[in-house]
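During data preparation, we tokenized the protein backbone, and the record follows.
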Amino acid sequence: MRNTLKLEEILMFLGSIFLFSHYDLAWWWFPVFILLPDIGMLGYLFGSKLGAISYNIFHHKGIAILIYLIAFHLESHIGELAGIILFAHSSMDRIFGYGLKYADDFKHTHLGWLK
């Protein structure tokens, strides 16, 4: 099952690249933007509870989709790109086993414990 979940995440990541390719940006912007959602880890400077909350806000696929849909409705291409990048980053993290965080420990995720 673990391989099936990874394959699903890979396909979602590739779908994000496909959506990104429809914008008038050079391809190299994608790898530049893809790590920006990790700014959510800064919350860990203030403890594991606040860290988990801020991390999860920047890594929740539902929030990414909501941002994209609101931006699409408002015709905000920057907002749409933000939603795509958040979604792509979340998929990329899950490919490597990083899930949404629990407040007790950074390594405790909804996908299990990180090694």
About this structure: The helical segments are 2-20, 29-33, 48-59, 61-74, 77-95. The first helix runs from residue 2 to 20. The mean pLDDT is 95.
